[in-house]
Structure formats: structure tokens, C-alpha cells
DNA sequence: GAAAAACTGTGACTTGAGTCATTTTCGTAA
DNA sequence: TTACGAAAATGACTCAAGTCACAGTTTTTC
């Protein structure tokens, strides 16, 4: 038997969900809340396995509630209820520890499926939500096309070490060079990349993922 | 009429795909290739709208081919053919510009759907593939839970500017402080975070996404 | 085989960065 | 009310970093 907490401010939607969920005899809604704060209170009173959480709510929204619940009860699964327009929230929700997404327009069959897949440790994400989220996630991890970095292999190696926060002395030791040579290379690198000092170079290295 | 290039080394799979695709009268496979290199050659000879690309192939794999095709023909759509075990490649493929993923086990209805959604500019990603990829993507953009960064607001502001590569003088100007004060704060910050110099601090700032 | 680019090194010089001691002000929590 | 941490500042000191000029060696490229 899976014990579920329903968090959703609109009573009608909540009722509908409850009925759909309890069509499956292994699933039971043993608590309901109208906003995040109430959800936290219910969590303390009941043994909850899974929370179904709306994002837009008064008092405390779903993101904050998700974060706080995951802090105190890391093993509880959380499914986010979402609409097509919530995609910027969705990414944040995932970072906060959500285990999946339900479109409000989903039919009950998908709903039940999502609950079980999420309880099994998987991640339940509706196809359309994923399609919207992925490009957003990629933007951040992309901006480094590794193209046209006009550095020689030696310069790259030094850039990498600068990006790890090493001093010239340490770099010299690792590469078996003199400190003076390292300095010369760095002068060269800064000129090529139009940077001012090793700090800007380190930032460059991290952002362009020069870590090989 | 949508012109399609099929890239897949196994002739049987290729034949099957072709038949499934051409069930739809708007879709036509006008070229086929057994590996990435051949695909590039075919691209030059035909006007292609969409490429369906396997990942594991001899001579030149699907990732490299995707990258090269997107470089020369940025408007061509590319759908990656994948299995459940390819998820580490999948992320890379997306970064290289792929427009979607097809599971090799998908039925023809899903296949056709994916092609159209991809041509409309959307991203076609099978639910199960997305579920596997998202956690992987999140790991990279996550590691900064913004928690326990024991810095005061002032220190945070300075850390942020260091992370932008600013000098103490510039930071002092922005925050209306003396250079000495900035130095003092930085000494304090370095001690708190157990770092050695502003370069390591800048790296810390970038990695923890302190950019507010 | 010659030219170009990459790699290595030295020494001298300038300056930004970081540490330390010490002081003052301000708000807030015990 | 007191005590404390955050914030701001000054001055003096040390040193790593960066620039510059010059030079030798090796590797790549045409």
C-alpha cells in the first residue's frame, strides 16, 4: 500500500486526482493540503511515501515545499503537477529533488504509471515536458563548443592547471618546467585570449570546460 | 515532401526503417549511408531535410557525423537512433545539435510522429530516454545547492565580482569601498572557504554559480 | 632543407594581491 | 545593557604574478 499526500490549492482538481488515484487499490490518499506550509504539517503527522505537488500555490509554493520536504525526508518521492507553461519552474524543481512530472492534462492511466515508476526509483517525465526542459538544460552545459581555442598543446595544459587554481610554481613542478617559462606561456595565453590575468584565465578555463 | 537520409550500418534495420517511413506519403528516403563518412558524401549530393542517424557505426560514428553535418548544414534536422544503453552518448549528441531521439524499438506511429515534430522545430525525445538523460544533465548543473555557503551578503557580493574577473580596484569602485577594505574582505572569504587566492575563489564562484 | 612555429630558459623590473594589527561604527541577539 | 559579528578603513610589509627583451632548442610545415 502506497501512502500519498496530495498538495493542490484547487479543491476540485484535488478531488478529481484523489478519485483517479484511488481507482488503483494499492494507492491511498491519506492526507491533503492546500499549500506548501500545510503540506509540511501533514508530513509530520502521517507516514507518507509519495507527494503529489502543485507548483503554483498561495502561502508556500511547490518549489519551496519540495526543497524542505526533501531536506527532512529524503526518501519521500515527489511528483510535480505541472502545466505546459511551467517549464522554467520545472528545471528548478528537478534540482530541488523532484522525482518526476505529471501534466495536469494526463489521463488516469498515465498518472498511475507515473506513480509506480517513480516509486520504483525511476524518473517519470512526460514526453512533452522533457522536450521543453532539455534545451534549457543544455544551454548551460553547452556554450563550450571547444572550437577555435587558438592555443598550443602546452598552452592548453597550462590553462588547464590555472583552471585548477594552481600557482606558477606548482604548474612548473607538474610540467617539469622553470617558473619563468610558465610565466612566459601565460603571458602568451593571456594575449591570445585577450584576458588580463590568471584569474580571468581560470574563469575562462572553467566556463569552457578545459579539464581534460 | 520531406527528404530523408538514412544512416545505419545494418542493412536489415535500414530496410525496415525505410519501409516504415515511406508508409507516410509525405516522407521519402532519397539516400542511405552505412556510416558517417558516407553520410557526409550523400549530404553533398542531395538536398536533405532530415537525417536519421545511428550512433554505433564503423568508420565514423554518429556523434562525429552529427557534429560535422550540423556545422555545414545547420538547418538540417537530425534524429538519433538509439537503444536503452546509449544514454551517455545521447547527452553528447544533444550538445552536438541533434534534434531528437528515436528508440530502435519504437513502433512506426511514434517514428512518423517524431519526424514531424522535429521538422516543426520541436524536440522529439522518447519518454524513457529523457528519464535517463535528465538526471545526468542535472548532476552537472546541480552541484551548487546554494546551501551552507557561510558568507555574509557583502562577502557574497565581492565573491561574485571576483568570479567575473574584476580587480580589487574595480570591485572597490563598484561597491564604493576602499581597496584596502576589499582586500580585507577577500582575506576573510579565503579563510572561510579554505582557499588560497582570488583565482581559486573565482573558480569556486563559477562552479557554484554565484552570479546572481 | 629552409622557414615558421612551438617550447624552453634567464634576469630585471613593476605592480597587484594578500596578510596583519588595529580602529571605528552599527545593528541585533542574549 | 552588554556583547558580538559584520562592515569599513588605514598603513606597512611580503611576494607571487605578469611584462619585456633576448636567446637557444626542437618540431612542424611547406
From TrEMBL, chains A, B:
BP-aspect Gene Ontology terms: phosphorelay signal transduction system; regulation of DNA-templated transcription
Response regulatory domain segment(s): 3-119
CDD domains with a match to the protein in the record: LuxR_C_like (cd06170), REC_NarL-like (cd17535)
Keywords tagged on the record: DNA-binding, Phosphoprotein, Transcription, Transcription regulation
Coiled coil: none
GO molecular function, one term: DNA binding
Entries under InterPro entries matching the protein: CheY-like_superfamily, NreC/VraR/RcsB-like_REC, Sig_transdc_resp-reg_C-effctor, Sig_transdc_resp-reg_receiver, Tscrpt_reg_LuxR_C, WalR-like
Pfam family for this entry, one: GerE
Residue ranges of domain HTH luxR-type in the record: 144-209
Residues annotated with 4-aspartylphosphate modification: 54
Domain of life: Bacteria
PANTHER family the UniProt entry points to: TRANSCRIPTIONAL REGULATORY PROTEIN LNRK, TWO-COMPONENT RESPONSE REGULATOR
Protein name as catalogued: DNA-binding NarL/FixJ family response regulator
Upper taxonomic lineage: Bacteria, Bacillati, Bacillota, Bacilli, Bacillales
Amino acid at each position: 500500500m502506497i501512502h500519498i499526500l496530495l498538495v493542490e490549492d484547487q479543491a476540485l482538481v484535488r478531488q478529481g486526482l484523489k478519485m483517479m488515484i484511488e481507482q488503483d487499490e494499492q494507492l491511498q490518499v491519506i492526507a491533503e493540503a492546500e499549500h506548501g506550509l500545510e503540506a509540511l504539517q501533514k508530513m509530520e503527522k502521517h507516514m507518507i511515501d509519495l507527494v503529489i505537488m502543485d507548483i503554483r500555490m498561495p502561502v508556500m509554493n511547490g518549489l519551496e515545499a519540495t526543497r524542505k520536504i526533501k531536506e527532512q525526508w529524503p526518501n519521500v518521492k515527489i511528483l510535480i503537477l505541472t502545466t505546459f507553461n511551467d517549464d522554467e519552474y520545472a528545471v528548478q524543481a528537478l534540482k530541488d529533488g523532484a522525482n518526476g512530472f505529471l501534466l495536469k492534462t494526463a489521463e488516469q492511466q498515465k498518472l498511475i504509471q507515473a506513480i509506480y515508476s517513480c516509486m520504483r526509483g525511476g524518473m517519470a517525465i512526460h514526453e512533452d515536458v522533457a522536450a521543453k526542459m532539455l534545451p534549457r538544460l543544455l544551454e548551460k552545459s553547452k556554450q563550450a563548443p571547444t572550437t577555435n581555442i587558438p592555443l598550443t598543446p602546452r598552452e592548453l595544459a597550462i590553462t588547464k592547471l590555472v583552471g585548477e587554481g594552481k600557482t606558477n610554481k606548482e604548474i612548473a613542478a607538474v610540467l617539469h618546467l622553470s617558473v619563468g617559462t610558465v610565466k612566459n606561456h601565460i603571458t602568451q595565453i593571456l594575449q591570445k585570449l585577450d584576458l588580463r590575468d590568471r584569474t580571468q584565465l581560470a574563469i575562462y578555463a572553467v566556463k569552457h570546460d578545459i579539464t581534460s
